[in-house]
Amino acid sequence: MISDEKHNRSGGAPPSDSRGGQNFPEPWVIEPMPLNLLEAPLDFFFADHYRQRQAALMIQLIADGEFDRQGVVDLIDFLEVDFVLHVGDEELGFFPILRQCCSTEDDIDSLLKRLADEHKADEAIGDEALTILKRRLAGDELSPEDCRRLRVFAEHIRQHLAVENAVLLPIARLRMDANSLETLSMILKQRHAKDHH
């Protein structure tokens, strides 16, 4: 049975919505994005990947029966806004510029196609996960199938990030020069000035 209480919270008190004090454990926090990193776009992507790993951890916790109301609210907001913005940052900014910087021997097209296909899968699986999270927030108990779908989504995020951190970003650091990084930085600044909330 899914508990309405945070892990290790004693008694029957409802989940706290407060971020202050020791009643809000770190696993339920997705740190805000430091926008000054837009000056260093590859560091920006790496930092955003960390936030996505944190989201995957929260999804896993929910699938395992834990719950924090404010944490779930923030997670839903992250998936609906920041996660979508990140995919656009990559597909509309990062990927096209990186493709121009790479040589044929890098075989970058196959990697970028794989990552774009995974983004499409993320969208489909993510929509299911959002529906489940919103039902949980409304007080519904999760079925074993709901929990399985959440775990699939969390694992999909982790595997995707592993490829981007271990393969994509190292290629970008090797191939992108100062001009291409500056161009990417400008694109990201424009997108986040318009879309960031």
Give an account of the 3D structure.
With 197 residues, the chain is mainly α. It has a single domain (36-195), classed as Up-down Bundle (Four Helix Bundle (Hemerythrin (Met), subunit A)). The protein has 5 helices and no strands. It has helices at 41-63, 69-101, 108-137, 144-175, 178-195. α2 (69-101) runs antiparallel to α3, α2 runs antiparallel to α5 and α3 (108-137) packs antiparallel against α4. The protein is elongated and about 50 Å long.
Report a brief summary of the structure:
With 197 residues, the protein is mostly helical. It is 69% helix and 0% strand.
Q: Any idea of the CATH topology?
A: Four Helix Bundle (Hemerythrin (Met), subunit A)
User: How would you classify the helix and strand content by structural class?
Assistant: mainly alpha
Radius of gyration: 18 Å
Overall geometry comes to elongated
The CATH superfamily appears as nmb1532 protein domain like
**H/E element sequence:** HHHHH
